[in-house]
Design brief:
By secondary structure, this protein is α+β, with helices and mostly antiparallel strands. The chain is 47% helix and 10% strand. The strands form four sheets. Strands 1-2-7-4 form a four-stranded mixed beta sheet. Strands 3-11-8 form a three-stranded antiparallel beta sheet. The structure holds protoporphyrin IX containing FE.
Length: 454
């Protein structure tokens, strides 16, 4: 077991006032927390007129995301305002009937049988990436975050949209989504807390050109998908529904585009961030690296991976799970209460913001032993204590759980195993690894690492 504690932002000793919270939140949403927040179960603060609750106990999370989820289904105003220009009424931010209809339509595409089929594409795309890495000279530097982003964007495109994205468009997708997130940072963070628009924000519509670039690529993908004869893709499924004359289920052209953008966004960055953080964590822990290599060598030997191997790659998967505990790709889940409620004898007025913060929960002092240490072993079957379903929630939980939880787990496990069979990555001397937190949590500066063949 390792003694490695990877970096995290300093925690405040005393509660911050509303203005201080806003100031810190503008820079980094992980920098607003006090030491105490990692030890408390339910918190409330008030900023201007809006109450902000933080559910930080498994029973409260069960209540908010499961028992009374209907009251907390609506995404917070920040989410909606930040993502609407890009996603329209796409699954990620819609609620009510539209969400229900789209969720039902898309769920079959993420079944175990489908993921087993997609795994062939995941493996092929990762082998191609390994091939391109082998052309890099020993000790050469790669930007791990963008490498992982291009790989996962390619995987989404081939599995769900039915055709190849290609190096150039994959790079463009990754760049445009990153630009869009950067623009969100500059949007008034006030909206996050539901504050009025008169408090100065930092400008709007900066993401417009990034959104336009993404829309253009997705339109190309749809045009290619229409031409292609791949009948198994999500896109083909949507297009077939449109063909039926009385199709109640059919989505409009615009809705199809929105759904594809949601899947591109939700599906490539989360997995890319997880993989990038995993490479960093492994590079700092020789013991973990050795165990990973032993596993991939014994499970895969000299051959490529198959879907059946996923079940055998238990340590690789534990690394992925521990990585998502320490650096949850979606570190804050925010909702708006639709109606008045009472939780732990506290009145929760309609319109309040309810935050569930994997960043706090996953490092909570009451729920984890050595909460800030990197210990993949805690996710192995023989671990003495099993992580609780409502305490470890990288994919959220309840009806709005990530639709691709299984897809994402299989994908990250396979990508890591296949690449770790061939390569070892190291942080260049003098480079300080740190984080960047907007809607997602990722390593800052693209995570440059030096590559060498094993
Ligand atoms: C490591 C990988 C992933 C993580 C950690 C992750 C995490 C999450 C989380 C936390 C949510 C809920 C967000 C919220 O309630 O505010 C979510 C929703 C979603 N994710 Fe994932 N995700 C991952 C991979 C993927 C992939 C690969 C796809 C698509 C192929 C995807 C598609 C979606 C969609 C469409 C939603 C919205 C579901 C709904 O609202 O019904 N995710 N994801």
């Amino acid at each position: 077991m390792t003694d490695f504690i990877p970096p995290f932002p300093p925690r405040h000793k005393k509660d911050l006032g509303p203005l201080e919270i806003l100031k810190h939140a503008r820079r980094d949403l992980l920098s607003i927390w006090t030491e105490d927040a990692f030890d408390r179960q339910f918190m409330v603060t008030k900023i201007i007129n809006r109450s902000i609750f933080i559910a930080n106990h498994p029973e409260i999370i069960r209540y908010v995301f499961l028992t009374n989820h209907a009251n907390y289904e609506k995404k917070s105003p920040l989410m909606r305002k930040a993502l609407e220009p890009l996603l329209g009424d796409g699954l990620f931010i819609s609620d009510g009937d539209i969400w229900q209809k789209h969720r039902v339509l898309e769920t079959p595409l993420f079944s175990t049988e489908q993921v087993a089929k997609y795994s062939e594409v995941m493996i092929k795309a990762t082998e191609e990436r390994a091939q391109s890495w082998s052309a890099i000279k020993q000790g050469g530097t790669i930007n791990v975050l963008s490498e992982m982003g291009q790989l996962t964007a390619e995987i989404i495109c081939r599995t769900l949209f039915g055709n190849q994205l290609g190096t150039e468009q994959a790079a463009q997708v990754v760049k445009s989504f990153a630009q869009y997130q950067a623009a969100i940072e500059q949007m008034d963070v006030n909206t996050f807390f539901g504050l009025p628009g008169w408090i100065p924000g930092l400008g709007k519509n900066k993401g417009a050109s990034a959104a336009k670039a993404i829309h253009q690529i997705v339109d190309n993908v749809i045009a290619e998908g229409i031409k292609s004869d791949n009948k198994a893709s999500l896109l083909a499924h949507f297009l077939r529904l449109q063909d039926k004359k009385d199709a109640q289920d059919a989505l409009t052209k615009k809705q199809i585009r929105n759904e594809l953008i949601v899947l591109f966004m939700a599906g490539h960055e989360t997995t890319a961030n997880t993989l990038a953080w995993a490479w960093y964590l492994i590079s700092q822990c020789p013991e973990v690296e050795r165990r990973l290599h032993d596993e991939v060598d014994s499970v895969l030997g000299n051959r490529s991976a198959t879907f059946a191997d996923v079940a055998k790659l238990t340590y690789t998967r534990a690394i992925i799970e521990e990585t998502m505990r320490l650096y949850p790709p979606v570190p804050i889940l925010s909702r708006e209460a639709s109606a008045d409620d009472t939780i732990r004898k506290r009145h929760v007025p309609a319109g309040s913001i309810m935050l569930v913060v994997p960043w706090l929960l996953h490092r909570h002092k009451q729920y984890w032993d050595k909460p800030d240490h990197f210990i993949p072993e805690r996710f192995l079957d023989d671990a003495p204590v099993k992580p609780d379903r409502f305490t470890y929630i990288p994919f959220s939980v309840g009806p709005r759980v990530c639709i691709a939880k299984y897809f994402g787990t299989v994908e990250t496990t396979l990508c890591l195993a296949i690449l770790a069979r061939h390569f070892r990555l190291r942080v260049p001397e003098g480079h300080q690894v740190t984080h960047e937190c907007r809607l997602t949590l990722r390593p800052k500066d693209n995570l440059p690492m030096q590559i060498s063949a094993r």
